[in-house]
Structures are given as C-alpha cells and as structure tokens.
Amino acid sequence: MCVTCGCSDDNNTTITNMENQHSHTHTLPDGTVITHSHDHHHHESPANVHAKIHNTTISLEQEILGKNNLLAAQNRGWFKGRNILALNLMSSPGAGKTTLLTRTINDLKEKLNISVIEGDQETTNDAERIKSTGCKVVQINTGTGCHLDASMIEKGLQELNPPLNSVVMIENVGNLVCPALFDLGEQAKVVILSVTEGEDKPIKYPHIFRASDIMIITKIDLLPYLQFDVEKCIEYAKQVNPKIQIFQVSATTGVGLDEWYGFLSCQSAITV
C-alpha cells in the first residue's frame, strides 16, 4: 500500500487512446495496460513503489514524491518545449469537471486546440463524452489508485501526442486529497468546487486549495435552490490561499464562462 495516500500498490493502470479503440491491448511489465497499436518504453509509477523493510514512512514518502517530482520536471520541460499550456483539473466526484470541460472545448474549438488526458479509476465514460466534441483524448484508468501521477502523464502524452502551440487539460481522478500531492508537470492546478458540496470545502480540505492557482465554483445556476454561501466560500478559499484566482460559472447556462475563457485565451497567448 502506498504510504503517501493509501492507494493500492497492485493497481493496474490502463491507458486507452480513444483514437485507436479497435487496436489491441497489451500489459507491460509494470502492470500498465496499453490500448494502441505500437509499443513504448515506460517507467515504473513513482506512486506505486513498494515499501522496503528498513524504510520509515517519512523516507519512503520522500522517495515516492521525489521520483514523481523528477518526472514532473521532465513533463514540464516537454510542455514548455512544445509551447503547450497544461492545466491539472481536480475536484471531488460529481463537481462538474467533465461537463465544464466539454462545454469549454465546444465553445473554444475554433480558437484553441485543446486535447485531454482523462483520469478515472474505471470506465471510459468521460473520455467518450470528451471524444464526442471532436477533441483528442486519452483515458487513464488507475484501477485502485486515487490520483494521477507524473509517470502516468508521461505515458499518456506519448499516446496523446498533442500538437505544438496547444492546450492540454488533465482531468484528474475525483478526489480532494491525493491529487494535490502529486505534481504532474502542469502550469497550473485548477480546483473545481460545485455549489452542491458546501462552502466549507476550502477549510475542510485546505491542501488542495492551497496548492491550486485557480478555484472554479460550478453549477451556480442551482444557487436559488440551495443554501450555499458564495461569499463565505470565497472567504474560506482566500483564508487558505490569498493568491487563488476565482471564477463562478454555470456550464449549463453559460453564466461566468466568458471570464474563464478569457483566462484560458490569455494564458494560451502568453504560453504559446
């Protein structure tokens, strides 16, 4: 069991290139299952290193995160060398990541070249939704793993092969704890919080909000039917992270999306 977050060491990561669904699958020595038509060299997942008998929990955690950070730095250099804006989208399950992502892709497909790495424990359901937009997408299934790590992103990028001067959205596994611990090489972490979850999430799960550059409050069209204090939520988020940038959006009605799109266009212009 991983001492950093408690996810199982024997999970079998599966990477599916949605462009090659009719191709064969094969299992690598590290347990990763690849669905595609050719082989790649892969590294051992740094979050799945087995505990050695004389290692302490602290030293093993440092080893795991240290290896992950080295790979994350390589990913970051890979993105930079290709002028790619990479964002790591994190939230609890059901916060609306995929709905916001598909709306964003559909609305901006004429302006930005967006591709997606989709993370879930099982199924390709969300990847199918994203694929329906015409976007390039690779699905990473983590099995019993509760987060993506830099090694998974490295493998996913080999399959995705995003074009130069583009945007890569990484939709992490739904979880407000572990994804914050693992640098993927992204330019910014984006935490998504829906109004159905409660305004106290930033102080109940402070690390992910402290680690994030952006907070998006979603489903604001439901506010008339809920007792969610937006101002208190923002206050809590600023208490944890005074520099966090906040957007309030509804992917259903489109309210607030112009500000979010403006941010993406500005960041892409700077990066690209």
Automatic annotation (TrEMBL):
Gene3D superfamilies per the UniProt record, alphabetical: P-loop containing nucleotide triphosphate hydrolases
Protein origin, superkingdom: Bacteria
Pfam families associated with the record: cobW (PF02492)
Ranges for domain CobW/HypB/UreG nucleotide-binding: 88-247
Record keywords, A-Z: GTP-binding, Hydrolase, Metal-binding, Nickel, Nucleotide-binding, Zinc
Keyword GTP-binding: yes
InterPro entries: CobW/HypB/UreG_nucleotide-bd, Hyd_mat_HypB, P-loop_NTPase
Protein family membership: Belongs to the SIMIBI class G3E GTPase family. HypB/HupM subfamily.
PANTHER family for the chain: HYDROGENASE MATURATION FACTOR HYPB, HYDROGENASE PROTEIN ASSEMBLY PROTEIN, NICKEL CHAPERONE
The protein's name in its UniProt record: Hydrogenase nickel incorporation protein HypB
Organism in which the protein naturally occurs: Sphaerospermopsis kisseleviana CS-549
